[in-house]
Write a structure and sequence with these properties.
heterodimer; A: two-stranded antiparallel ribbon; 22 helices; 75% helix; B: mainly alpha; 2 strands
Chain lengths: 514, 483
């Protein structure tokens, strides 16, 4: 009976267990820091294990699965409606996977207000999972906004020197971006006339006048573009990522940034397909500008954390290029690349954090020859770097390859320029690795650094293993992404008879993935 | 003429409790404290029971007393219950604050109760003269309350300013009532409405003038720009527990009265007052939020924020009569809880006549009073309108009503101004959580009564944010009884 009940309400359990856990931790005595940490790690670990049940039961079909639905305030057409399809499925797993790692990663670096830290991390997890599983506009917005608060505190309390500025900037930027989205939702509700905020229902039967669509799409796109972040809405990102504590940076890069691109796929494109098609060339252009700009700025960063932060702008540019291209291959590549970026950039932030814990600096110039004193660290750093560069055999290769292949039919010029980003990413990552890891030990302080502890290895090894596994066994993942992507394509094509970019039948992605 | 007094019973109970609180002072031996707070609580609880009984009586809504001047419909009962709850929380918050400021005088509670009588009348009046009298009862008691800290210049200034502008606004209101009477020959809301539907152009013009003046009168009371000038000084100077009461209670009562006048007396003139309210809404949202940005004093900041919130509320009034009334009522519940809580949290820290006023005073509060800081954070988040809080759901419905009536532009201004407000609300959070405490801990520990009131406010705010359906259903029922 219990297993049946769990199965029927699995998504709700995943969302609300962390929230309950947060309440539980706040009841632990303030002095009992060890218990608070164990509690936080335990809850997020259980959530991860439960989320693996999804892996066992998820079917590679287009339909929504694990759906739950009940009225929330019925007279206003607002319901508690959750479910996942191939687009959100792996993002949910990514979230439940990264959260316990982030908590483990801050085991020894957070000493102040440990209880509050764990509370906010768990609330953040609940909010993120809520965004990915929501199938009701109101519910989506609630989680979308509610998530800002724990992140705001994580940056503002446990961040570095300019944390207050970064936290406020993060909050205001994101809120400013999404404010108009709320009005757009209200207009959708009114114009659709279905007395419903239900996303699948609106997607299936709401039709909006093309001119109005441009406004509505624009309002939503602004919210999502800030979150992605797309150039030129990215300026909050370097501040937030650099000032956040390691766990915050990992979650920000690993999960929060995916919400923007996810929002395009879940809401903006299916609800307003005509507008999406008309905006697509511009989104593609901004994406490619972001790819090149992010890479060039990364290249000149003297600060490792900043370098990784700007590299996110570049990587997310690929994701957005794939979405703008809107071919099956590019879309599968985009969803896949979201996961890859979560894993490889998450790992990079962890590793920069580990160096910071040892030396309290992130300046590249302060390091050199680290390989001689921390060989295991160096080996893993190299592997993570290669994954981020998208070397064949690693996860990043599959994602970027699919995106570039799939974007060719959309715009050869944009795809060609985007390839430049791949080369530049090799340049900035390898150059950083070279300066940090290789050569002689240039600073005396570095001569006796400890290599990875068991705890640190326990964080990094799963990430690296996954990066390799996703590089060689990609069909295991893309198989469940594809049907939903195809369904999204069909749905948009049925609404837009003459899309700006002709969508050709592409070869099944399974054939091009190794 | 019906002399059925049942609809007036809750207000009569409160008035009686007020008299007893006043008398208890006289009969208490020197050196002992009068049981005024206890009397007030008992009276308010009894009045709440009376409201509940009226709400469950079979002829609910049909009975009216004093020749139809006072209604006991769902709207009136909702409003009365709300101001009574505001009263109860105020009384719970007050003792520790009054002790800290040396203001322990029995007449404090008597004045709070008398003001409540006025508020209860304001949400129930279906006749202009009764409405005016209720407004005056409410206001006169508040003038005295605002000046309770006689030794403080700010408190005196607050009382005088409030009195002068209040008298000024009453004159507007009264003149407006007179013009409406001149145009329609009646002071009953229902008869004014009947007379105005299909009235001659000349009559309409006169009535329009009257409505305009009535709006000015209410504009002062709800502190909408450009009638807001008094609010920052009065909020700042008044004793903080009074500010809490004023911010929550007056807003509820005045918006209740305004809702009733607009929907019961002058709906026929809607095409004329709608644009006016839309303009008032925009300038209040913009003015209040920009004003709040510049404030270093927390009480003043919250005063400007109350101006901004009057603007949010007005956006929904523009959308009357559709879903707007229930959105306004729901928002008022959330707003009342948040303001009582916000000012109450400041009051709870008062010691030796001093209370935290500047942002710096709150520096590092999360380390010294974690629970209080968390509560204040919940209130500020709700004021910003971020989920999961009553403020978010409330704003959602206000803008929902505006968009539904075709005023999407108002909603756009509203959400953009909410982003601006995030800056100054979060600045308080920055000081509490992200800065270290400065100097000695000079603030008081939170007294049990105040702590209970704050906990209730937090619970209400979160409950409204997570499961608003029951309160929404009540608000809808109440809004439905407006004719």
């Amino acid at each position: 009976v219990i297993s049946d009940l769990l199965r029927q309400h699995l998504l709700s359990v995943l969302v609300f267990l962390p929230a309950l856990g947060a309440v539980g931790i706040s009841l632990v005595r303030r002095e009992d820091e060890r218990l608070q940490k164990l509690f936080g790690l335990g809850i997020s670990g259980v959530v991860f294990l439960l989320s693996l049940l999804l892996v066992l039961e998820f079917q590679p079909v287009a339909a929504m699965q694990f759906e739950e639905r009940c009225d929330w305030f019925p007279s206003y057409g607002i319901s508690y409606h959750v479910g996942i399809d191939g687009i959100s499925y792996w993002l949910v797993i990514l979230t439940t996977f990264l959260t316990p790692l982030a908590l483990l990663g801050s085991w020894e670096s957070i000493h102040d207000r440990v209880r509050e830290f764990n509370v906010f991390m768990l609330l953040l997890e609940a909010g993120m999972l809520g965004v990915f599983v929501s199938l009701d506009l109101f519910l989506f917005y609630v989680f979308w906004e509610a998530m800002l608060i724990p992140m705001y505190f994580l940056i503002g309390i446990w961040g570095h020197e300019r944390r207050i500025y970064a936290a406020l900037k993060f909050f205001l930027y994101t809120m400013a971006g999404s404010a108009l989205m709320l009005v757009a939702f209200l207009v959708v509700y009114k114009v659709a006339g279905l007395n419903s905020f239900d996303i699948p229902r609106l997607v299936a039967s709401a039709r909006f006048d093309p001119a109005l669509q441009m406004w509505l799409f624009g309002a939503c796109a602004l919210a999502f573009a800030v979150k992605v972040p797309m150039w030129p809405f990215h300026t909050w990102l370097p501040d937030a990522h650099v000032e956040a504590p390691t766990a915050g940076s990992v979650i920000l890069a690993g999960v929060l940034l995916k919400m923007g691109s996810y929002g395009f796929l879940r809401l903006a494109i299916p609800l307003f397909p005509e507008a999406a098609v008309r905006f697509a060339p511009w989104i593609g252009l901004l994406a490619v500008v972001g790819i090149v700009y992010g890479a060039l700025v990364s290249l000149v960063q003297p600060d490792m954390k900043k370098l990784v932060a700007y590299s996110s702008v570049s990587h997310l540019g690929f994701v957005m290029l794939g979405i703008a291209a809107f071919t099956p291959m590019a879309l599968v590549g985009s969803v896949y690349q979201m996961l890859n970026h979560g894993i490889s950039t998450g790992a990079l932030f962890f590793m920069v954090g580990m160096l910071y814990d040892r030396r309290h600096t992130r300046a590249i110039a302060e390091f050199g020859g680290i390989k001689n004193v921390m060989p295991w660290f160096a080996a893993l750093f190299l592997l993570v770097g290669l994954s981020s560069i998208a070397v064949p055999g690693f996860n990043g290769f599959i994602g970027e390859f699919l995106i570039l292949m799939g974007s060719w039919s959309f715009s050869p010029a944009l795809a060609a320029v985007a390839v430049l980003g791949v080369i530049l990413s090799a340049a900035y990552i390898l150059w950083m690795l070279q300066r940090v890891l290789y050569g002689e030990v240039t600073h005396q302080e570095n001569a006796h650094l400890k290599d990875l502890s068991l705890r640190e290895a326990a964080i990094l090894v799963p990430l690296v293993a996954l990066a390799l596994f996703m590089g060689v066994a990609s069909p295991l993942f893309t198989r469940s992404i594809e049907p939903s992507v195809q369904a999204l394509m069909r749905q948009v094509q049925s609404r837009v008879p003459h899309p700006a970019a002709p969508v050709r039948p592409a070869p099944a992605t399974a054939q091009v993935t190794p | 003429v019906s002399l059925d007094l049942r609809p007036a019973v809750p207000a009569l109970i409160v008035a009686l409790a007020g008299l007893l609180a006043l008398l208890s002072q006289a009969f208490t031996p020197r050196g002992r404290r009068a049981p005024a707070a206890g009397l007030a609580l008992v009276g308010l609880a009894a009045a709440l029971v009376a409201v509940a009984l009226l709400a469950s009586s079979p002829d609910r809504g049909r009975s009216a007393s004093l020749g139809g001047a006072l209604a006991a419909d769902e709207f009136a009962l909702f409003g009365q219950a709300l101001v009574l709850l505001v009263g109860i929380l105020t009384v719970l918050l007050s003792p520790s604050y009054l002790r800290a400021c040396g203001l322990e005088r029995g007449e404090y509670y008597a004045l709070v109760l008398f003001s409540l009588v006025g508020m209860m009348g304001l949400v129930s009046a279906r006749e202009m003269i009764a409405l005016f009298v209720a407004l005056e009862i409410m206001s006169v008691a508040l003038y005295a309350l605002a000046g309770m800290r006689r030794e403080q210049v700010e408190s005196q200034e607050s009382a005088v300013k409030y009195f002068v502008t209040g008298a000024f606004s009453s004159a507007f209101l009264l003149y407006g009532i007179a013009l409406l009477y001149g145009a329609t020959g009646s002071t009953s809301l229902a008869r004014i409405a009947v007379a105005l539907s299909g009235a001659a152009p000349g009559t309409r013009t006169l009535a329009l003038l009257g409505t305009g003046l009535v709006l000015v009168g209410f504009g002062f009371k709800v502190a909408s720009v450009p009638f807001h000038m008094w609010a920052p000084d009065v909020y700042e100077g008044a004793p903080t527990s009074v500010t809490a009461f004023m911010a929550a209670g007056v807003k509820v009562a005045a918006f209740g009265g305004l809702l009733r006048v607009l929907s019961e007396a002058v709906p026929a003139l809607g095409s004329s007052w709608r644009p006016v309210l839309a303009i008032l809404a925009v300038v209040s949202m913009v003015g209040g939020n920009l004003g709040a940005l510049a404030q270093g004093n927390v009480k003043r900041m919250l005063a400007y924020s109350s101006i901004a919130h009057a603007g949010y509320l007005l956006t929904a009034l523009v959308a009357l009569p559709r879903a707007a009334a229930e959105a306004v009522l729901f928002y008022l519940v959330a707003y009342a809880a948040v303001n009582l809580g916000g000012f109450g949290a400041l009051a709870a820290l008062a010691r030796d006549g001093k209370e935290p006023l500047s942002l710096g005073d709150l520096s590092g509060l999360a380390r010294r009073r974690p629970a209080l800081a968390a509560a204040l954070t919940v209130f500020l988040i709700s004021l910003t309108g971020v989920p999961v809080s009553g403020g978010f759901v409330g704003k959602f419905y206000l803008f929902w009503a505006a968009v539904g009536a075709g005023y999407a532009a108002l909603a756009v201004v509203g959400v953009l101004m909410s982003v601006v407000s995030a800056y100054y609300y979060l600045r308080v959070v920055v000081f509490m959580y992200m800065r270290e405490p400065v100097g000695e801990d000079t603030w008081s520990a939170v007294a049990p009564g105040a702590g209970f009131a704050l906990a209730v406010s937090v619970a209400v705010v979160l409950f409204l944010g997570i499961y608003p359906a029951p309160v929404l259903a009540l608000a809808r029922l109440a809004a439905g009884s407006l004719h």
